[in-house]
Amino acid sequence: MSEAPTMSRPVLAETRGADGRLPEEPEGPERRASGPWLSVVLMGLLALAAFAAIVRVSLGSLRGSELDNDMMHAVGNSATAAMKVTDWITYVSVGGVALCLAVCVGVALMRRRVGLAVAAMVLVVGANVTTRILKLNVLDRADGAGNSLPSGHATVALSLGLAAVLVAPAAWRWVVVPFAGFVATFVGAGTVVGQWHRPGDVLAAVAVCLGWTALAVGLAALIQPGAAPRRPGWAARSSLALVGSAVVGLIFVGWGLRPADHDVNLVLAVLALVPIGIASAAALAWTSAVADRHLA
C-alpha cells in the first residue's frame, strides 16, 4: 500500500535588512515608554486650579476666612496634645531640611540618576522659595489678619517627602510612600492642631508642592529618562499613603486630641484635618505612580 503524499507547508521568506539582520520585534504597548508629559500637564493644571480655589476661599472671602478660622479652633482644646505635636514640629529647621535634601541627592547620584538629583533639588528649593514669597510678599487676607498661607512647615515636610519618593529605587517606594505620608500629614495637620496654621494654609502648601513636582518630573524625564516603565499600582499605592496619614490620626487621638465642644464642632474638626491627610497621600501616591511608570 502506498503512503499518501505529504503536503508540505510553504515557507515564508524572511525579510532581512541591508545589514543581513532580521528586523526586531516591535515593542508591545506595555513596554513602550510614552513619557510623563500627560501626567506632568494634569498635575500642573490641578495644582494651579487647587491653589487658586484655596486662595479665593481662604483669603478672598470673609465667609471663607471665618470658616477657615472656625475649623482651626474646632480641632480641640487639649493643651497637652497641642504641646506634644508642636514639640515634634519644632525639629523642622533649615539645617534639617538641607541634610534631608543632601540625602535625597546622594541617593539619586548613587543610582547614577543625575536627572532625579536635579529634580529633587528643584522641587524642594522651588516649593519652599515659592511658599515664602507668596506668604510674605504676594498674598493678603480679606479679614485684615496677618497672612500665613501657604504653610512653610507643611511645604518643607511634603516637598522632602515627594523628593524622597522620586529618588528612591522602585522597590523601595512601597516603604517610602507611607513613611512620607506619615511625616507630611503629621507636620501639616500638626500645625493646625497647634494653632499655628489654618487648614487652608496647609492645603495651599500641598498645591504648591504638587505644582513643583510636575516641573521636577518633567525636568528629570528630559535630563535622563527611565530605562523600563513599570506598571503603577494606583490602588495599592494610595492605600499605603493613606495608611501613613491614618496613623497620624491615631497618634493625635492617643495624645488626647478631641474636638472642642464635642458634637458641635466634630464636623468642623474632621473637615480641618482629614482633607490634609487625603491631599498629602494623593500627592505622594500620584508622584510614586508617575515615577514608577516613567522614571524607574
From TrEMBL:
Matches recorded under InterPro entries: PAP2/HPO, PAP2/HPO_sf
Composition skew (Basic and acidic residues), residue ranges: 16-32
One Pfam family per UniProt: PAP2
Domain of life the protein comes from: Bacteria
Domain Phosphatidic acid phosphatase type 2/haloperoxidase: from-to ranges: 146-217
Transmembrane helix among keywords: yes
UniProt keywords, alphabetically: Membrane, Transmembrane, Transmembrane helix
Residues spanning the membrane: 37-59, 88-109, 116-134, 154-172, 179-196, 202-222, 234-255, 267-291
Ubl conjugation keyword on record: no
Region feature (Disordered): 1-32
Protein name, entry field: PAP2 superfamily protein
